[in-house]
């Protein structure tokens, strides 16, 4: 029961626990879903895919008849797969609960088939096993390609020719990287489309499954107060910041071929930017949203080399501990110039955003881990409090911060009077801290995305024209950086990154938040 406060305001209770958004008839007795994790022995499968599938199972989001198959070259029995998978399953939903029994039930639905990624024969064997489990029901099949990109096409070819279904749907989730540039990305799309229709391809960008990224549209389009301010008229600059406090350890081989611009900016940060800056879609339908994202991406200027700063972390000793430099990794060439940090200034040449710098910053081995969107508003014109009290309000424009992770939050920095008889201003936050407001744990991005793929919801997956537009922005600058062998600015492991990022921001009259 809500208690009336003295001033007549009611405290707002947190909303009822959310009902799960299932369009799927989970009790359907006539159909099955078979999920094959291709590359099941790998890091991503263990760390993210199996735990996400378990969380969905725990929440009763998987259909009544489902089977999970791990597929990879490594030799493993079903029992060994279950043992491997069980090590990373957690009772994420409610830590107080013992979900051991649910885990047991889940693991019994997991199987393993060992095979080559380019062997149709091995996929025919898989198909036979899937059929046995499907027991004559309408069969729907989802393949998750959790393998290195050079074998995507082989695996898609074999899966589609030898293990697709004829009575239900066949969908393929493809992990990034989707190519290295415009040409290789188009070639990959063309190769995949030899075997799949566009609507069977689910290109994953797991940032789109993050709670606060999904919330961006809600924030913009269901609150009156933000959208009218969402333009060059009121916004001075927008910052998209990604930082990690660890290096590329263990993934150096992959990373050296891609670098931070391809790893984070061209996909995760650009996707956030598109959702942030797009016009109002006609509806919440996947195609309407993706149409708007493509439009805004195509209105952007390709990034210029002068608008980019690149860096690479070097070894650093702190408190008696030595942290390795990027090139200390044995899988990275000693003379590698691959950036582990980049800052960039991007512009959208349309009526809404003309002249507003969108600054991106992404880096590994920095001093903290965070992903944020920071929106800095313009100055209050003719600000009374500046004139009359000489306060430093010039420095204190409003700022909206959307903290994607960790400690999800949305807060608005405002100027406020310090209570008392005098007149002193203070910068305060209107703060929505998720863990204070919502008791339920936020689902991992992979849970949402896997559920969407099973339901056939494409809104959070990347369409091929979006991908083309994204690569068009970054390909020229990547080519130039590589051809000119631009030397990155070195920064110590655990630092705030290259100072060049500050000069770049200063050129556009911006201070990083
Ligand atoms: P892994 O390097 O762990 O590879 C997955 C599996 O693929 C391995 O267990 C191995 O299985 C097989 N494999 C590895 N190298 C080769 C090769 N050269 N030829 C044939 N098979 C090979 O990858 P991850 O699990 O880290 O990532 C999977 C995909 O997801 C990649 O595309 C990656 O870019 C992407 N990704 C990964 C993230 C992560 O955090 N790990 C984050 C975001 C995207 P076996 O030998 O048993 O066949
Ligand atoms: C991946 C990148 O896409 O995202 C990694 O390849 C990065 O380099 C990871 O570490 C970050 O994801 P998250 O969800 O941990 O922020």
Average pLDDT across residues? 92
Structural class: alpha/beta
Uncertain regions: pLDDT < 50 for 5+ in a row? 1-11
How many whole angstroms does the radius of gyration measure? 25 Å
Global shape:
globular
**Number of separate helices:** 14
Percent of residues in helices comes to: 25-40%
Structure summary, number of beta strands: 18
* Ligand inventory: NADPH dihydro-nicotinamide-adenine-dinucleotide phosphate, 6-O-phosphono-beta-D-glucopyranose
Placed side by side, the strands forming the largest sheet appear as: 16-15-14-13-7-12-11-8-18
Name its key features.
seven-stranded mixed sheet; nine-stranded mixed sheet; binds NADPH dihydro-nicotinamide-adenine-dinucleotide phosphate; binds 6-O-phosphono-beta-D-glucopyranose; single chain; 513 residues
Explain this structure.
- The structure is a single chain.
- The chain has helices at 43-58, 78-86, 100-108, 120-134, 152-162, 182-193, 211-221, 252-277, 286-298, 384-389, 434-437, 445-455, 464-483, 500-507, and strands at 31-38, 66-72, 110-114, 138-145, 170-174, 201-204, 235-243, 308-314, 316-318, 321-323, 341-346, 358-363, 370-377, 399-405, 409-417, 425-433, 461-462, 489-492.
- With 513 residues, it is an alpha/beta fold.
- A nine-stranded mixed beta sheet has the order 16-15-14-13-7-12-11-8-18, with helices on both faces. A seven-stranded mixed beta sheet has the order 3-2-1-4-5-6-17, with helices on both faces. A two-stranded antiparallel ribbon has the order 9-10.
- It is globular and about 80 Å long.
- Residues 39, 41-45, 72-74, 117, 146-149, 151, 175-177, 254 line the site of NADPH dihydro-nicotinamide-adenine-dinucleotide phosphate.
């Amino acid at each position: 029961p809500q208690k009336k406060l003295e001033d007549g305001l009611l405290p707002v209770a947190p909303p009822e626990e959310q009902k799960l958004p299932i369009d799927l008839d989970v009790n359907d007795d006539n159909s099955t879903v078979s999920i094959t994790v291709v590359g099941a022995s790998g890091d991503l499968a263990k760390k993210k895919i199996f735990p996400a599938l378990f969380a969905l199972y725990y929440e009763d989001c998987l259909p009544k008849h489902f089977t999970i198959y791990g597929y990879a070259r490594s030799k493993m029995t079903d029992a060994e797969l279950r043992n491997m998978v069980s090590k990373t399953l957690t009772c994420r939903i409610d830590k107080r609960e013992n979900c051991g029994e649910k885990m047991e039930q889940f693991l019994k639905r997991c199987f393993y088939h060992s095979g080559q990624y380019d062997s149709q024969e091995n996929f025919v064997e898989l198909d036979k096993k899937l059929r046995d489990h499907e027991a004559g029901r309408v069969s729907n099949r989802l393949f998750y390609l959790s393998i290195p990109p050079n074998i995507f096409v082989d695996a898609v070819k074999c899966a589609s020719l030898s293990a697709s279904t004829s009575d239900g749907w066949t969908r393929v989730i493809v992990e990034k990287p989707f190519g290295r540039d415009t040409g290789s990305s188009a070639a990959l799309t063309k190769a995949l489309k030899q075997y799949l229709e566009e609507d069977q391809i689910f290109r994953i960008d797991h940032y789109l499954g993050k709670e606060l990224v999904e919330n961006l549209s809600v924030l913009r389009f269901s609150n009156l107060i933000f959208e009218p301010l969402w333009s060059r008229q009121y916004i001075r600059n927008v910052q998209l910041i990604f930082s990690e406090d660890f290096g590329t350890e263990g993934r150096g081989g992959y990373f050296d071929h891609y670098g931070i611009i391809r790893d984070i900016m061209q996909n995760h940060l650009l996707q956030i930017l598109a959702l942030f800056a797009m016009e109002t879609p006609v509806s919440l339908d996947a195609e309407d949203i993706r149409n708007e994202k493509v439009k805004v991406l195509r209105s952007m200027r390709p990034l210029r080399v002068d608008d980019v700063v690149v860096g690479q972390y070097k070894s650093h000793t702190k408190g008696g501990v030595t942290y390795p430099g990027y090139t200390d990794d044995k899988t990275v060439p000693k003379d590698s110039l691959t950036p582990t940090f980049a800052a960039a200034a991007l512009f959208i040449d349309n009526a809404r955003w003309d002249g507003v710098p969108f600054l991106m910053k992404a880096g590994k081995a920095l001093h903290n881990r965070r992903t944020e969107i920071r929106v800095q508003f313009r100055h209050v014109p003719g600000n009374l409090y500046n004139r009359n009290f000489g306060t430093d309000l010039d420095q204190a424009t409003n700022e909206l911060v959307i903290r994607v992770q960790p400690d999800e939050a949305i807060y608005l920095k405002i100027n406020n009077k310090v209570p008392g008889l005098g007149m002193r201003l203070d910068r305060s936050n209107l703060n929505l801290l998720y863990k204070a407001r919502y008791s339920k744990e936020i689902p991992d991005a992979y849970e949402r995305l896997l559920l969407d793929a099973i339901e056939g919801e494409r809104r959070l997956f990347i369409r091929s024209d979006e991908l083309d537009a994204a690569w068009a922005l970054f390909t020229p600058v990547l080519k130039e950086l590589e051809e000119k062998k631009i030397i990155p600015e070195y920064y110590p492991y655990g630092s705030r990154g290259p100072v060049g990022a500050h000069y770049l921001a200063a050129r556009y009259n911006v201070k990083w938040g």
